[in-house]
User: Fold F-box domain-containing protein from Caenorhabditis elegans.
Amino acid sequence: MSSAVPLPLCKLPFLALSAVTAHLKTMDIFTLLATSKNAQRLVSQSMRNFDIWKTKMKEKCFRLYIVASADHIKISMADRMFYIGNNIGKFRDKISYIFKCVKVYRYDIEVNHRREEDVRQILNILRSVRYCTISRMSYTNQRISGETFQLFARLGSWRSSLHVNVTNPHYTRVHLGDLNYTKIILNGINISNQELNEFIGRYDGGCSRKSYIEAKGMSSILVKSEILKYIKAREIKDGSVSKFHVTKNCRTRDINLEVFIGEHCVQLQNNSCSDRFF
Assistant:
């Protein structure tokens, strides 16, 4: 039994291609156009009411998914794969085309052991093409630099989550107050007692939404007395776990911050409101 052979649409005569595109679904046409500039030229010329189709596509909103692994980059949207390869230039072209044709309202980025230089290039491409909000930023690598952290900070929003996992625990310049995410989970990033003390001291809840920060897997040792120095905190026992409640008067409301401090981990949760997005 012979296997199915794909139909080379762009090699069809003009009238045949026009007849085929007339029966394709909207996303099928968009996927075909995204394959190459030659496909864009041929389909746009053969398709009836192409300008009307373009207008309708620009009214649609999509969520974009980007995965950057050690040896390839993937772009997917609406359960369709639009790019898989390892060329930053082609990635830029594909992203530019997608953003030109449709509204991308949010995107998820997953990085798995990709070179940091490439990661920064990918993020800067997204920033330069068009601004939109990161929904979830996930980063796994041996290390992370302060420069990459600062780029993460610029791309976050009050409804975003940031997950950073490094396999070689180390110190880097982490300013928690600059990370504009609702949920932050850091694994293997050593944060100093002073940095945590300053963050809790300045904490104002950001927006009025619930926020959660967790830093674990540190090789450094955290000291409760140093972290809570000059901060009014009430200790509460929850079984064998000791937590601290910090109440702060910020703007027009009270902030209720729950803090758990272990030897190599810390959790901070704003319990001031019940909204939950994760």
User: Anything to note?
Assistant: Residues 182 and 211 are 5 Å apart (CA to CA). The longest helix spans residues 88-101. Residues 1-7, 274-278 have pLDDT under 50 and may be disordered. The first strand starts at residue 61 and ends at 69.
